[in-house]
Request: fold
Amino acid sequence: MATASYAPLTACAREGLARFERSYEAQHPWDAWAAELEELRGLAAAVLGVPDGEVALPASACSGLAVFLEGLMPDHRTILVADSCFPGIAQACHAQVRLGARVRSVPFDDIAELTTDDPPLAVVVPQLCSQTGYLLNVDRVVSCADASGAVAIVDCSHGLGHLPPPPASVVLSSGYKYLFGVPGVACMRVRNDWAERSRPAITGWFGARDVLGLRPVYDPAEGARRFDAGTPSFPAVFALVGALRALKQILTDEPGLPALITGALRPLQSQAEGRDFGFVSLCSTEQVVDVLSHLNIVADRRAEGIRIAPSVANTVTEVERVVDAICSTVEIDAQR
Ligand SMILES: Cc1ncc(COP(=O)(O)O)c(C=O)c1O
Reply:
């Protein structure tokens, strides 16, 4: 129940890791590794709902964002960052001050208006609030950004694979949450017009136009591939391929499963006022923690509370069991 933090290590990801280990026995594994990387790009493109050429596979969501933004510098315009963004995402934005950008951290609810009044270079928002689990109205932010010529960047790390991605120019997701990979590779959609405008200095041979040509010149790949940078973490690539093959099958067989899983959390959401959510955040009490650990349930515990974040790796029955256990232990006090 902690998928918003990190996914359980599924049999499919383990199978990917085992395939990577076996690939070492080949004489020259690079061709197989490169093919695996392209399979991953295709699988990620399907989850993102975009063509393969718009998908970058950076080492992490934060580093992918940093490389994309750095490639747009120097630019003296503003980057607006929602104050509900994950700190690492905000850090990647604030780092651009060194390269000329102005960076403002602002409440999510102000972003659409600010974008319209004084068009920034970029707006960076999360798909949902990582404290409450509530879905944010990112579509409005995306259309204001598109209309004002800004690049809309949405961090979907708490949703991709579980919730539909927004139509933003840049979509980010770490690979080790709802995509069920392990740390080491992330998925990033960069629309072609924005990919071509960004010329990253932080690069490596997998970001080059001709990876195997090995020419000592700066010639970035077309489209999003230029953000891939150096040698990928191939163990993570194999694990994510294994996981995404399975996820694709699950979502083909049962497209409504993520909604059923999230819907089974509804009884915990007593103060949700009809808002949609991706996971539930509760004020933590020792009682809840005790009950969950007694039932051998892993939830994401943090200073401000406990996040109950199931995924398609769970069954609806499991979620109902957790909800019953919590409801029978404490009076629910869902956070806003
Ligand atoms: C919402 C969100 N975005 C991004 C990240 C970090 O992603 P990565 O480790 O791939 O940079 C996290 C990590 O927990 C997160 O919660």
Notes: The longest strand covers residues 78-82. The mean pLDDT is 93. The chain has eleven helices and ten strands.
